[in-house]
Amino acid sequence: MKPMLERKRRARINRCLDELKDLMVTALQAEGENVSKLEKADILELTVRHLHSLKRRGQLVLKPEMSYAERFRAGFAQCATEVSQFITSATVAANAMQRQGPVDPQAGARLLQHLSNCIRRLEAPAVQPPVVQPQPIAPGGVARPTPVQAVPPVLPTQAPQIQRTLERGLKRLAEEPIDVEMLDTKRVYPPSPPHSPASETDSAQSMWRPW
């Protein structure tokens, strides 16, 4: 039983050393060194030296993964930018061809303003509630809590860039002329009920009089 376990253990060690050798040869070639033959001790020594070099350059630290909230904010910001670019380009192209575009200019402006407000709310961190610190109790007295002022929220650096993109879209829509006659032709008004003098007579007869 023991010889079989020992053979499996040695096989695992050799397999890992072979993989580590391939990784180290590739890394050293990227740094300008050409190494082909390496013994087991050389592989381990070069690996330790390479890791120390990465640590000194600050490249050994793993980047933290984005949280769900950060990924949602990034995705929402990207979608808002795409919507702004689509509405602006569609409105400009429609006005250049003198026809009604796929998006009503006023509705597009309201949508961009709404997205701008949503971005502002998403990028602003939640305000922490004030922390209450109790005062030391005096002899025969009652402790009174002292409220601590909350730190005002600070907007991240990504928010101004997205805000500028949406504001440019709003400004572009405001500069584009709106064909009022074309909008009026597409507007449908409900038909007015027919005017009948008999209805006025019936309403006058049905009116209650005190005499």
TrEMBL record:
Residues 198-211 have a biased composition (Polar residues). CDD domains: bHLH-O_ESMB_like. It is found in: Nucleus. GO terms for biological process: regulation of DNA-templated transcription. Residues 72-115 form the Orange domain. Keywords: DNA-binding, Nucleus, Transcription, Transcription regulation. One of its GO terms (cellular component) is nucleus. Residues 184-211 are annotated as: Disordered. Residues 1-54 form the BHLH domain. One of its GO terms (molecular function) is protein dimerization activity. Pfam families: Hairy_orange, HLH. Its main location: nucleus. SUPFAM superfamilies: HLH, helix-loop-helix DNA-binding domain, Orange domain-like. This is Enhancer of split mgamma.
